Amino acid sequence: MNKKPILTILGGVDKDGVPEPIRSVEVSPGEILGIVGPTGSGKSTLIADIEQLAQGDTATGRTILIDGVKPDACTRVDPRKKLVSQLSQNMHFLADMNVEDFLQMHARSRGKAECLSEKVIELANTLTGEPIAPHCPLTVLSGGQSRSLMTADIAVISDSPVVLIDEIENAGIKKQEALELLAGEGKIVIVVTHDPMLALMAARRIVIRNGAMTNIITTSANEQHVCNKIVEVDNWLMSLRETIRRGDIVEDMA
Amino acid sequence: MKLVVLAGTQGSGKTSVLLHVIKVLVRDGNKPAVVKVDCLWTDDDQRFDRLNIPVRVGLARDMCPDHFTIYNTEEMLKWAEAEGADVLLNETAGLCLRCAPYPDKCLAICVIDVTTGPNTPLKVGPLLTTADIVVMTKGDIVSQAEREVFRERVLDVNPDCMVVEANGLTGKGASEIAELIEAGMNVCDNIVLRHTPPLAICSLCTGETRIARKHHMGVLRQMDGFTEYRGE
Ligand SMILES: Nc1nc2c(ncn2[C@@H]2O[C@H](COP(=O)(O)OP(=O)(O)OP(=O)(O)O)[C@@H](O)[C@H]2O)c(=O)[nH]1
Ligand SMILES: [Mg+2]
Ligand SMILES: [Zn+2]
After folding, report:
1. Is the pTM of this model over 0.80?
2. Strands A7-10 and A24-27
3. Which of A45, A88, A112, A150 to probe the B interface (max B CBs under 10 A)?
4. Residue A123, exposed/middle/buried by CB under 10 A (0-12, 13-18, 19+)?
5. In chain B, where does the domain assigned CATH 3.40.50.300 lie?
6. How far is B218 from B68, CA to CA, in rounded Å?
7. In CATH terms, is domain A90-158 a member of 1.20.120?
8. Could you give the C-alpha distances from A34 to B20, B84, B140, B230, in angstroms and in order?
């Protein structure tokens, strides 16, 4: 794992070119930061700015600093030095390869040992109800399997100190466990979401409107309490889903 | 005058990326001109026209599009000069994967679509292996892991190239490419090709239509790889 940096987002302009109200956001190692706002408001654009470590050279004019300074060109492009891993909205793989070969090649591109592929598959199988086999072609994986595999891949192979997540809730995967797995070991996790549970698991959340960061909300004690309730409901739904999948009868309200 | 040759398979995103690059070049005070070479038809010139820069189209028709590009490079440079340009951007058709239209003193850019899968870099040939910059497009459609695997495959076949992840829709990567163009060298007289085009003249090239093997002459290659010269 790379050293644990502090990430700073310096504000740029909104969709009309007007400077955005929030001028600077500092994110520390171990923090989960939410990004919320209406569809099309520019949440994914903020994620993209962070992913490419924008230096005033993207449409928003934002600048991303690492430990208070501009990252060098190599850090921006070389996967071996990449500070940022990304779990994108794209739920399916297009590569015509099997799971094991793909993971081994990905490990190689990140300068890691190829045998890590086994660990990725093992971990992915703890996040999804549908087991993934090493020789399974990538293209036939379900949405939930793909998401689980991408999540485990980020935790084990990419292992960058900053993790970006775009709309994880749309997949059949154990959300809370996935988020905790990714947030492990002092990583910064930035999650775009409409999902109340994920948004409230974050310590703070940035509100986006018309392409601009307009507000930062700190999760209150009351909101954390609500979050715990949602986690209980979510676990209950997940267990019901497992019961149905097994072909069993649902007994009671538990 | 700087020469940029942009090659890549059909629909890989050459024009989309180039449109963003041109905006940056113009903003920085450069004077780009564009020549689009295609085989039979193109409407790329209409897309470039909207940027109010000199645009010209060349259709290769019966000629190999790469051979056509090479044969007309001198004329394109003269035209760009006369138009008052200081950078000639040449978007090619890039269909013939045996040839590559890159002169030595140009910036050779190969545009490749990541959604075509990680085996594609192995199939593209000199177009990719002799390029200075390899631009990966459509990364928005695949996962980060898939982009990284693709990048590794590109570096396997062209270890010295610079890989740029670009997006034809959002303009990601355009300023990086523009910077590389601005830092590039000027063309001079007596430029030569980087890659020797293959010797490929056979009787089919001169109008033979009968399929039976006995009618064919020239440099011929069999399914098992055996290559011979048959004829006078
Ligand atoms: N999703 C996505 N689509 C893209 C991207 N770049 C280009 N496209 C789309 O791909 C299609 C082909 O793009 P062009 O720029 O016309 O490709 P080209 O290489 O110039 O095509 P030819 O000149 O016909 O060979 C268009 O529909 C573009 O909108 C990208 O980065 N992401
Ligand atoms: Mg084009
Ligand atoms: Zn050719």
Report:
1. yes
2. antiparallel
3. A88
4. middle
5. 2-182
6. 22
7. no
8. 31, 51, 21, 70
Q: Is the CB of B92 under 6 A from ligand 1?
A: no
Give yes or no for residue B147 CB within 6 A of ligand 1. Answer: no
Superfamily of domain A1-83+160-221: P-loop containing nucleotide triphosphate hydrolases (3.40.50.300)
Please give the span between the terminal C-alpha atoms of chain A, in angstroms, as a whole number.
41
Q: Do A1-83+160-221 and A90-158 agree at the fold level?
A: no
Q: Tell me phi and psi for residue B230, to 5 degrees.
A: -115, 135
Å from CA of B207 to ligand 3 middle? 17
Residue of B nearest to A48 (CA): B172
Q: What is the mean pLDDT of chain B?
A: 91
Nearest to A71 by CA among A50, A42, A46: A50
Domain parsing of chain A, residue ranges: 1-83+160-221, 90-158
Name chain A contacts of B164, Cβ cutoff 8 Å: 77
Q: A205, A36 in Cβ contact below 8 A?
A: yes
Q: What is the pLDDT along chain A (254 residues), one digit of tens a residue?
A: 457 899 999 999 999 999 999 999 999 998 999 999 998 899 989 998 998 888 888 889 999 999 999 988 777 767 677 888 888 777 678 888 999 999 999 999 989 999 999 999 999 999 887 899 999 999 999 888 998 999 899 989 988 899 998 876 555 677 778 888 888 778 999 999 888 988 999 999 999 999 999 999 999 999 999 999 998 888 888 788 888 888 999 987 65
CA distances from B192 to A5, B101, B187, B198 (A): 48, 10, 11, 15
Count Cβ neighbours within 10 Å for each residue of A214-252 and write b for 16 or more, e otherwise: beeeebeeeeeeebeebeeebeeebeeeeeeeeeeeeee
Domain topology for B2-182: Rossmann fold (3.40.50)
